[in-house]
Structure formats: C-alpha cells, structure tokens
Amino acid sequence: MADFLTDIETIRERARQEIGKGPVTDAYGADLPRVLTVLNEALATEIVCTLRYKRHYFTASGMYSEPVAAEFLEHAQEEEQHADKLATRIVQLGGEPDFNPDTLTGRSHAQYDASADLVKMIEEDLVAERVAIASYTEIVQWLGDRDPTTRRVFEELLAQEEEHADDLRGLLERLPVERRDA
C-alpha cells in the first residue's frame, strides 16, 4: 500500500468536520478567492464571445456569408458550452457565477464587436480567440498542480479556442483575395 502524506484517519476526520466545503479539501492548494475571480472573468469572456458570434451569425451577409455564418453559429454554441462549464466549476468551488449583464464587458478578456463587414467580423473573432488562447494558457500555467480540476477545465477550453482560431484563419484564407482587401 502506498504511503500517504497524511494518515487516512486524519483525512477521514477532516472530511467529516468540513463536510460543508464540498470538494474543497485541505489538499486544495490554490488561492480559492482568486481562482473564483479568474473563473468569473473567463465566464464573462465566454458570454461576450457567445454574444459576438451570435450577432455575427445573424448579421453576416453577402456572397460568401453562408459558410462563414454557419461557422459563427457553431462557435457561438461552443462558447455557450464553455460558459456553462465555467459556471458549473464556480458552483462546485462554492462560488457564485456572475452573469450580471451590467459588468460583463468590463470583466471579459475579449471585446464585443458589431462589425458589419464579413472580413472584419472574422478578423475580430480571430483576435478574440487569440486573446482567450493567451489568457487561458497563462491561467493553466498559473494553476499548475494547485487546482488540477480547474486547470483541466481551462485546458479543454483552450484546445477548443485553438480550433476556433484555426477555423477562422482558414475562413480568411479561403476568401477571394479581392474580398480580403475589402
């Protein structure tokens, strides 16, 4: 049998004494209030990204807009799933997910965009994805081994944000040259 740093009887006793803390035990090594703040900032980012993609989906127009709009809708749905994962993790850690619309853009790492031009929409979405990638990479590194579950949530989001960025880059590359310069 493996040796534990803490004997099992002590672990059992702490588990009973601190039952109200749910999954957060003495083994949790991160700064919980800061982790909750970071999670809520990421939640705001995902909500703003969902709204931006939805706007672009509904307002995309022109000869090349159909496949681009379909990509916008797919990304909007995936960003909404990201928001749900983050809100779930916040609650698991004993926090409250902040959905306050009055403060969303101030807490979000990404910006909202109301571009009317299809190329500009794609470019702004790509910038937002790159911001999320950079932010989530830093968060993963910051969390390290102190909160492996939250780190995995961000790793999953990061992988999908990288896919989104690749998709958007591909859309830009497939547009005719004269359209990209518009």
Please describe what this structure looks like.
- The chain is mainly α and 182 residues long.
- It has a single domain (28-180), classed as Ferritin, CATH 1.20.1260.
- Helices cover 70% and strands 0% of the residues.
- It is built from 7 helices and no strands.
- Helix 2 (32-59) packs antiparallel against helix 5.
- The longest helix is centred in the N-terminal third of the chain and has 28 residues, at 32-59.
- The protein starts with 7 loop residues before the first helix and ends with a helix.
- The mean pLDDT is 92.
- InterPro entries: Dps-like (IPR014490), Ferritin-like (IPR012347), Ferritin-like_diiron (IPR009040), Ferritin-like_SF (IPR009078), Ferritin_DPS_dom (IPR008331).
- Fe cation binds at residues 46, 82, 129, 161, 164.
- Its cofactor is heme b.
- Residues 29-179 form the Ferritin-like diiron domain.
